[in-house]
Specification:
Elements lengths: L1 H16 L13 E8 L13 E5 L2 E8 L4 H13 L4 E5 L9 H4 L4 H10 L3 E3 L9 H9 L20 E3 L3 E3 L4 E2 L4 E6 L2 E9 L3 H4 L2 H4 L2 E3 L2 H14 L4 E7 L17 H8 L6 E3 L6 E6 L2 E6 L5 E9 L6 E10 L9 H18 L2 E4 L15 H14 L9 E4 L15 E3 H7 L5 E8 H9 L12 E2 L3 E6 L14 E2 L2 E2 L5 E7 H4 L12 E8 H12 L10 E4 L1
Parallel strand pairs: 1-4, 4-5, 5-6, 10-12, 12-13, 13-15, 19-26, 23-28
Antiparallel strand pairs: 1-16, 2-3, 7-8, 7-11, 9-10, 14-15, 16-17, 18-20, 19-22, 21-26, 21-27, 23-24, 24-25
Helix pairs in contact: 4-10, 11-15
């Protein structure tokens, strides 16, 4: 963006020096546009526990937690930010739904779609979690109608989204067309601005294989660049990309030192015509300049609204400048929007009897944050619960359980009395994956564990149940990281030729997250849902305390 502005400035200066026109004579003032953006809302209609962590203003070396989020407070902030500008548009960069708390998930995320529509959201790219229940269900989110199995559970028939989903890189193979429009053009004081929406190319690797059936996900940069001539032909110069892919910065929520990750290379590959990039997926907060272009991301769970102030040239119809501010949705000070409160209360009345059921208690917070070896306190408990649910002969005769870290979504936080509800457990296990017990040889278990490093930049370390342990060596190449001799079950070395009954969730059993070895498992037996296994475990074993976290050992 900076290079493009520089070339324009030089050309205009030479034009003026040549005496063609007096410098800046009768030039029309720029048109102001405010873009409000969110990403990775994930159905958090109520403020997430823990809010947002930011640098302590009094001591930048420390972090503090700020109460933030919630649709009632976000709606108020969006209204305030709109009132400060003549031209505004409210957009999103994917994962508005999916992996949602119980209040939204019980109704297949209909409350979230209604809430964001009521808030005035206008355009949204499709994230990977929008595909959690398949493309037909995603189309229902856009178009409305009752759920095909659960029918209409909410207080009224579901009308569908008032905002428009965009999916430039997602192709339905049967038709060769995008599942939703690739872009939408909006005019502000006569100047057209194009918004292109797309999800990450790696979506098939992180959604259920059944959900990816019949869909192709194209390269992010190639998709955008191929659209530029079409947009230019329609008179568009100002281009904003809403992309569900992101990066990892090291600074505070409005900074961008040392950003890394997929978004960096993608932005560098974008055609110079792209001016602004709104990103997501990595659950990070940043305001960056990458390759001369503004790139933003607004954390997760509705804790931030990104306000992007753009100046548009009425002559060239292009972006002159753009700056952004990630504004915290301060739930402690922002008033509640009454319409949002009424919407949430209406759904809450139906959900509360189930959500508020006491599951048990914890002695301290069970964290999903992994240690250096990849093991987490909550991951251990979830794997133990899945083993307990499938250990008996009638339930599968399992001897070990493995669960994917991406399915462990939030900490189970210790409250004052230590009590844990069904809703608390659901927030940590929101996908309602069914447990599957299957037979693998010891050699196949080792191959499965090796597949944890299919993507060396983002390894997916499986959480393992009590009794199973192994070592891995970070200095070894892919295929040799698991120390085979260290694999043991209840102190007995794993025999590569022996068959073992192991439990995973149905997402993994289909090869989800790249664990294709699990598709080779034989004698499958389906069990209860993962969250129900966790609920039963809490009922039987509370109070729950973190384990020693010594099941996975890393060297080097």
């Amino acid at each position: 963006m900076r290079d493009k502005f520089h070339r324009k400035l030089v050309a205009f200066t030479l034009f003026c020096l040549a005496g063609a026109v007096p410098a800046f004579a009768e030039s029309a003032p720029p048109v102001d546009l405010r873009i409000l953006a969110i990403n990775d809302f994930h159905g958090y209609l109520k403020p997430p526990a823990g809010g947002i962590r930011i640098a302590d203003p009094a001591d930048k070396t420390k972090k503090i937690a700020v109460a933030a989020g919630g649709a009632e407070h976000m709606a108020t902030l969006v209204k305030q930010l709109r009132q400060e500008a003549k031209n505004t548009i409210f957009v999103a960069a994917g994962d508005l739904i999916g992996a949602s708390p119980f209040l939204s998930a019980m109704f297949h995320d209909e409350p979230t779609i209604e809430s964001l529509s009521m808030m005035g959201l206008e355009l949204a790219s499709v994230g990977n979690h929008e595909f959690d229940e398949g493309k037909a269900e995603l189309k229902r989110m856009q178009n409305g109608g009752c759920h095909p199995i659960d029918n209409c559970r909410g207080p009224r028939p579901f009308p569908g989204a008032k905002f428009h989903y965009l999916a430039a890189s997602t192709i339905e193979t049967a038709t060769g067309k995008t599942i939703f429009p690739a872009y939408e053009i909006r005019e502000f004081d006569g100047i057209p601005v194009a918004f292109i929406g797309l999800t990450l190319k790696a979506t098939p690797n992180i959604i259920s294989p059944s959900s990816a059936t019949g869909l192709e996900f194209g390269d992010e940069a190639d998709t955008v660049n191929a659209l530029i001539p079409e947009l230019k032909a329609r008179g568009v110069e100002a281009i904003v990309v809403l992309i569900h892919e992101g990066g990892f910065p090291t600074g505070d929520y409005n900074e961008c030192p040392g950003i890394s990750g997929a978004i960096v290379d993608i932005v560098r590959k974008f055609d110079r015509a792209v001016d602004i990039v709104v990103s997501g997926h990595t659950h990070q907060a940043y305001v960056c300049e990458i390759d001369g272009r503004l790139v933003t991301s607004g954390d997760k769970f509705g804790t931030l609204v990104t306000a992007i102030d753009v100046k548009l040239d009425p002559n060239s119809r292009d972006v002159i400048s753009a700056k952004a501010d990630n504004v915290i949705v301060r739930s402690g000070t922002l008033p509640k929007d009454t319409e949002q409160t009424a919407l949430i209360d209406a759904y809450d009345r139906s959900a509360a009897p189930i959500a508020n059921r006491r599951a048990g208690s914890v002695t301290e917070t069970l964290s999903r944050t992994p240690n250096n070896a990849g093991e987490s306190a909550l991951g251990d408990i979830i794997a133990d619960a899945q083993l307990a649910a499938t250990q008996s002969e009638k339930d599968g005769n399992a001897v070990a359980a493995f669960t994917n870290p991406g399915g462990v979504r939030t900490d189970i936080i210790k409250k004052e009395d230590g009590a844990v509800t069904y809703a608390d457990l659901f927030a940590s296990q929101p996908f309602r994956n069914q447990l599957v017990t299957l037979s693998l040889t010891g050699a196949q278990i080792r191959d499965m564990l090796e597949q944890q490093w299919l993507d060396p930049k983002r390894p997916r370390i499986l959480q393992v149940s009590n009794g199973f342990s192994y070592n891995w060596d970070g200095s070894k190449p892919y295929g040799e990281r698991v120390v085979a001799a260290s694999m043991s079950l209840n102190g007995v070395p794993i025999d590569p030729t022996r068959s073992y009954r192991v439990t995973v969730n149905n997402y993994l059993s289909l090869g989800g997250d790249g664990f294709t070895v699990l598709k080779e498992g034989s004698s499958q037996q389906f069990g209860v849902f993962d969250v129900d296994a966790l609920y039963a475990y809490f009922q039987a074993h509370s109070p729950i305390a973190p384990t020693a976290a010594d099941r996975i050992v890393r060297s080097n």
